[in-house]
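Case study: GGDEF domain-containing protein.
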Amino acid sequence: MRSMEPIQIQELLKTLGNLADLESGQRDLGGVLNRIPQLVKETLNVSHAYCAVALETSSLVASSGTKDTFVRSDSWEGPGVLAREAIEHKQTQLWQESDIGDGPSPSDRLDADNIKSWVCVPLSLTHPRQGVLVAACENGPIDEASIQLLEQLGAYLEVILRNLIDYQRNEALALTDELTRLYNFRFLKAALRREMERASRYGQMFSIIMIDVDHLKAYNDQHGHLKGSELLRQLAGILSRSSRAIDLVAKYGGDEFLVILPQTRLEGAVSMANRIREAVAQTAFPHCEAGHMTVSIGVAAYPQHGETVQSLVSAADEALFAAKRANRNCVIPAEKPGNDGLIMDAA
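Here is what the predicted structure looks like once written out:
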């Protein structure tokens, strides 16, 4: 193993810190993790290393061995027996070839048959997040100084990852609606501009669907606003499940939603809108049987109903108003371009 002077350790920690410098824009969790294993290998002169972080709904695993790889996965298959023990007991775990028969083998994690020793350092992240930093050597045991250095790297990495994960979480919160977890109005405005610029540049079309809950005020008056909020959350789930992977579903106002449908003509958008309307009508909401709560929907398409964000949204809004006038629970496509004077302020 490689011994290091204090000044070298300080330089190493500085390098590690620079990997996730929020001020300079280094905010990609995957990109940071991708650099860690190679840094561990070079620092400790070991043959294999990996770093894994499990988040609430996904995980990131970066490994570095004879061939450097970076793997993203939606579910964490497990960091290996030894690493799991490190996480569960919140203590560094050491395994050496001489320990065969005395404890768990960690070989179920890395595809390496010639490993002589392993060290697994847990990364204490905010629950339910968890992580582990692992070094493995083919040449013999990992000495105490290297273990201490790996633990020092792990402690420093914990701070970096916590800050980075918290930053990304706060950034996501700034762009999502707290109630429905859909994108909020702020993000929606930017997304509409980007989609219009893209469609204009490549001569393509796209459509938008504006959705409003029918008689929500009467529902809130009868059952309370908490139940009304629960209804909106349930509706958001229906919209998300009814949309395609390329579509963007966002909260537009108090009880209004907007869906952006890239590369979709008006006819296709109307068909999707009707599927949404039917799905809502077939759903039993709190204190309501299926068919009691409905939505009205307006549809507009670029460029025929508007060549600016304001005019396109205005056209969809006018169509929605027409659906409300037509006794609700229906889909109305826009008939003419919208008003370019619409002011898109936060609702």
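For the exam, be able to explain this: Confidence is low (pLDDT under 50) at residues 22-26, 66-72, 74-79, 107-111.
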